[in-house]
Specification:
The chain has 475 residues and is an all-beta fold. Helices cover 3% and strands 31% of the residues. It has helices at residues 143-149, 204-208; strands at 11-18, 21-27, 30-33, 69-70, 128-130, 155-157, 163-164, 167-171, 183-188, 197-202, 220-221, 228-229, 235-239, 248-249, 255-260, 263-269, 276-282, 294-299, 304-307, 357-378, 402-404, 409-411, 434-443, 449-462, 467-474. Strands 1, 2, 3, 8, 13, 14, 15, 16, 17, 18, 19, 20 and 25 form a 13-stranded antiparallel beta sheet that branches. Strands 4-7 form a two-stranded antiparallel ribbon.
Length: 475
């Protein structure tokens, strides 16, 4: 076996940057990712990881909520109910009146099998560890909770049915700071014996980072810009998880479309590549033409879209818009601050009139993949010998012949087989040493095999030919 060492110019490490496209279509409480339908599986009773007995409606084939992607995709169309563990109390009897779990003396044995907290039937694939002295745990548990909830040797379970999807939040104008994504206040309850306290939160510092791109990123704007304060103004927030875009959303790729009864009434795009969502289309039935106006901003690194355009789009369709809590909003006109209303509602009831409104979000993500490229060279006059038995002439009289004495051992020369291709039956071509390369193996500095690259078709290697095999590995 021939071994060659990579030179400095044979190994390259690069960053491959890609821009995958993604789209969300929201209508009547459902979300469709990349225009794919929500498929139902053959089984039902998938658990959602929030408690025993909580199920998804429609038995989605991925085992996660409809309109979501599955992080691991480990429970595809997996039935529930195949395994059921039950904890037996002392003295519990079966249908025949016999005690469950009795020993040879007839004394009851108390079973201590733990029922799964993430799957009532115990049939779904899920991560688990045993509480031992090594302090191995799952991220879903804090150290303090982990030490209290589980005894030594007890099974600790998680969930593999993790999912992600787009979210929308609709806020009406308010004179007080309420709990909203942008800025608000929240009451925290430390627990028994603790005192409740109110904490404030805001993304003002995050917005300040982008004010050099546009003054519309200020929390509070003044004339000549539209006057508004994001802490209290009417606003719609669209949140996109990073699993859909990678490192960041590609600047200039965001497009929002507002539909009424299947017809577009408004379109927003980032034409300036600076995060400003500019009105590029508005239906002629709108009371005023707001083309060119800024109706929102995009935080590309954080995956947030803030919509502040409260002007009317199209005619008043008398639609009962709702916020993300299911509360009916007072205004019924179509406007960007209603974008996403009723599109992501889960189990909340949708007003019948809201079914005519639908929304679309399109963008490109930015992903960076480290790659290693290795050049393996098969040079002139090299790699032209094989240990395959068919490489030598099987008709040679010296095949297997040797001479030996107490001082040496000598094998007779055997000619290589002539495998040179020819189309002429009466012509014998010149005999050449040639091999066929099928694989390239990669070894570490200790000659441990760490990878094998296979070619689609064997490569014919003669002494007067040389090749370079380009091997690429995503890190």
């Amino acid at each position: 076996m021939a071994l060659f060492k990579f030179d400095d110019n044979d190994v390259f490490i690069n960053i491959l940057e890609a821009y995958p496209e993604a789209s969300f279509y929201m209508a009547s409480g459902s979300v469709y990712i990349d225009n794919q339908p929500n498929l139902s599986g053959s089984f039902n009773g998938y658990t959602n990881g929030t408690g025993i007995g909580a199920k998804f409606e429609g038995a989605p084939v991925l085992g996660v909520a409809e309109g979501s992607i599955s992080l691991y995709e480990k429970n595809i169309n997996r039935p529930s109910g195949s395994i059921l563990t039950v904890v037996r109390d002392e003295g519990t009897t079966d249908s025949n009146g016999d005690l469950y779990g009795t020993n040879q003396f007839g004394d009851p044995i108390i079973e201590t099998v733990r029922v799964s907290e993430t799957d009532a039937t115990g049939s779904l694939i899920r991560p688990f560890v045993f509480r031992d002295g090594f302090k191995n745990s799952l991220k879903i548990y804090e150290n303090s909770d982990y030490n209290v909830l589980f005894d030594s040797g007890e099974l600790v379970e998680g969930s593999s049915n993790l999912s992600a999807s787009i979210s929308s939040y609709i806020y009406q104008e308010s004179l007080s700071r309420i709990a909203r994504v942008i800025a608000g206040k929240k009451t925290f309850q430390p627990g028994e014996g603790g005192t409740d306290f109110t904490g404030f939160f805001t993304i003002e510092n995050t917005l300040d980072k982008y004010t050099f791109k546009s003054p519309h990123f200020k929390m509070v704007t003044a004339a000549p810009l539209p006057v508004r304060d994001l802490k209290t103004a009417e606003v719609a927030v669209v949140s996109i998880p990073s699993i859909f875009y990678g490192k960041k959303i590609k600047p200039g790729s965001v497009e929002l479309n507002y539909y009424i009864s299947g017809s577009v009434v408004g379109t927003l795009k980032d034409r300036g590549y600076n995060g400003e969502l500019i009105q590029t289309f508005i239906t002629s039935s709108s009371p005023e033409d707001y083309s060119g106006s800024v109706a929102g901003i995009v935080l590309y690194n954080e995956g947030l879209i803030l919509l502040t355009g409260s002007y009317q789009l199209g005619v008043d369709n008398d639609i009962s818009y709702i916020d993300h809590y299911g509360n009916v909003l007072g205004a019924s006109i179509n406007k960007w601050t209603h974008f996403g209303s009723g599109g992501v509602t889960g189990s909340m009831a949708i007003p019948p009139t809201l079914a005519s409104a639908s929304y679309e979000v399109k963008f490109q993500g930015t992903t960076e993949t480290p790659t290693m490229m290795m050049m393996a060279h098969a040079k002139y006059g090299e790699l032209n010998w094989s240990n395959n038995p068919t490489f030598v002439d099987s008709t040679s009289p010296y095949l297997g012949a040797y001479s030996s004495n107490i001082y040496n051992y000598t094998e007779q020369d055997v000619l290589a087989a002539n495998v040179t291709d020819t189309q002429f039956a009466e012509y014998t071509p010149e005999k050449k040493r040639e091999t066929y390369i099928t694989k390239v193996a990669i070894y570490d500095d200790k000659r441990n095999l760490i990878g094998i690259a296979s070619v689609a078709n064997p490569v014919r290697k003669t002494e007067d030919r040389q090749y370079t095999f380009k091997l690429k590995l995503d890190l």
